[in-house]
Amino acid sequence: MLKVDKISVEYDGKRVLEDFSLELGAGQVACLVGESGSGKTTVIRSILGLLPEGGEVTQGDILFDGRSLLSSGGYAESLRGRDITMIFQDSGAMIDPVSTIGRQFVEYIRTQDRKAGKREAQARAINMLRQMRLPDPENVMHSYPFQLSGGMRQRVGIAMAMCFEPRLLLADEPTSALDVTTQAQIVRQMMELHTERRTSIILVTHNLGVAAYMSGPSDKIIVMKSGRIVEQGSREKILRCPAQDYTRELLAAIPTMEGEGSGQKYVYA
């Protein structure tokens, strides 16, 4: 489905990502792990075509269903928001603070689905908020972002990203701004949506515990540092037999809050 083929990215002539490759099939999860500045977010922004000003893919290609996302012609734009969506690190910062959640959600649905009427869009939005286990979703629709907690705003962001059952979900540190308990809840709900809808996920995180919980036997963990891939492999390979000192350092930094995952004890936060 997705092939990232040896891409390099520069910002105003400075290379920040070097020779990155990834292949992801339908229903697979890839977790990009590493410290801040390692190039993780640059990867997913390149896929979505949302590099900040001055950013440019200078080498390689990104293919979705065999077609380049970097070529002109509007192919990438036609996928964005439906087939490929993104959850940002702080969804609250991406929501208009002076407009209600309902107005924004309905507008988003009707922009992506021109045939949807206002009433239908409202019903779909409420249903998605309910699936994210937000209490009293009708009240959430009438609320402004500042009236919701950080965890509730993040659930709204996930609900919007999952509304059209995307084939590929890009998640940029979706739990880092939340308290530990809420982080665990959000991760569980993302995995439920992934399992139910067979959505492929690329997760950016600094925490190998989160990556371990979200990765199954056929999924991938990619460890990054300074714009390069340091190590990659299955969950078992990375956790049990890390080849690089940097990977061992990340493992040693995992917090101690435990959760269940395929018979192992992993960390959500």
Kindly summarize this structure in a few lines:
The chain is 38% helix and 26% strand. The protein is built from 11 helices and 12 strands. It starts with a strand and ends with a strand.
Supply the key terms.
Rossmann fold; 12 strands; 4-stranded antiparallel sheet
SSE arrangement:
Layout: E1 2-11, E2 14-24, E3 29-33, H1 40-48, E4 55-64, E5 67-68, H2 75-79, E6 84-87, H3 91-94, H4 101-112, H5 118-131, H6 137-141, H7 150-162, E7 168-172, H8 180-197, E8 200-205, H9 208-214, E9 220-225, E10 228-233, H10 235-240, H11 245-252, E11 259-261, E12 264-266
Parallel strand pairs: 3-8, 3-9, 6-7, 7-8
Antiparallel strand pairs: 1-2, 1-4, 4-5, 9-10, 11-12
Report on the structure:
The chain is an alpha/beta fold. It is built from eleven helices and twelve strands. The chain has a domain of 142 residues: P-loop containing nucleotide triphosphate hydrolases (Rossmann fold). Helix 4 crosses helix 5, helix 5 crosses helix 7 and helix 7 packs parallel to helix 8. The longest helix has 18 residues.
